[in-house]
Amino acid sequence: MQTTAKPSLWLLPCLLFACLRADAHGSVEAGDVCEIKIGFYSAHFAIYQPQTRQHEEFCEDIPDATETIFVIEYLHDVMREVPVDFRIIADTENRGRFVNWDDILAIDDIERDTVFYQTPAVREDGVFLVHHDFAASGDYIGIVTIEHPTLDRLYTAVFPFHVGETDWGYVPLFIGLAVVLQLTYWILTGGLRRLGRKKEEAEAQ
Q1: Cα angle vertex 172, ends 24, 165, to 5°?
Q2: CA atoms within 13 A on the CB side of 61
Q3: Which segments of 11-83 are extended strands (E)?
Q4: Coil vs helix vs strand at 72
Q5: DSSP structure class, residue 6
Q6: pLDDT score of 81 more than 90
Q7: Could you tell me the pLDDT band of residue 156, with boundaries at 50, 70 and 90?
Q8: Residue 174 is inside which H or E element, if any?
Q9: Other CB atoms within 10 Å distance of the CB of residue 195
């Protein structure tokens, strides 16, 4: 006879946290090799901090406010023929992990928040390199813009990232949610009754 195990409620925050991590970095997808989506274009994406982390590779948050190299390696040959630009802005309004292109368009003065801008350039070798020396820790947003090869159309990628000390973000919230749900599950499955019976048995002895 087969039995079906009841799923524990503590799995819910774990699943929610996994979903958050999957979508937490906008156009950048983390995996064995990080990839950035720019409309229908895609490229390998990596970040290096050679002065402090040597050859260690990052594709999202970076640990130090120091010299940083962004590497975008094109996966479509047509990208070698069209201009690509790269902008980094300080997230001064705490737009957070779910920032998107509409949020960027709503900025009154993007130049005010811009800490780095690489003007549109054609990279025939298929590798777009950006060097920037971060002066301060904090939250930033990367913006990549690329033209359509034949139409008057732009495609964009927006990805938030943190520089410097660890940003715990939503982790405390999910830990708290996990504790509450686990406690609720324990009560609903008779944990409180069992505890009461044990107390009565101990007093009866």
Answers
A1: 70
A2: 16
A3: 28-29, 35-38, 41-48, 57-58, 67-74
A4: strand
A5: P
A6: yes
A7: very high
A8: helix 171-188
A9: 12
11-62 per-position pLDDT tens digit: 444 444 444 444 445 678 776 679 999 988 999 999 999 999 999 999 889 9
Alpha-carbon distance of 188 to 165, in angstroms, equals: 40
Which one of 3.30.365.10, 1.10.10.10, 2.40.50.1070, 2.60.40.1930 gives the CATH number of domain 25-164? 2.60.40.1930
In the 8-state DSSP scheme, what is residue 62? B
Contact 107, 133 (CB under 8 A): no
The residues spanned by each domain of the chain are 25-164, 172-204
Closest by CA to 65, choosing from 118, 170, 140, is: 140
For all residues of the chain together, what is the average pLDDT? 82
Q: Which amino acid is at 110?
A: I
For the segment 8-20, what is each residue's pLDDT rounded down to a tens digit?
Answer: 444 444 444 444 4
Extract the tokens encoding 63. 């640990």
149: its two tokens = 């090869």
Query: Tens digit of pLDDT for each residue in 106-123?
Result: 999 999 999 999 999 999
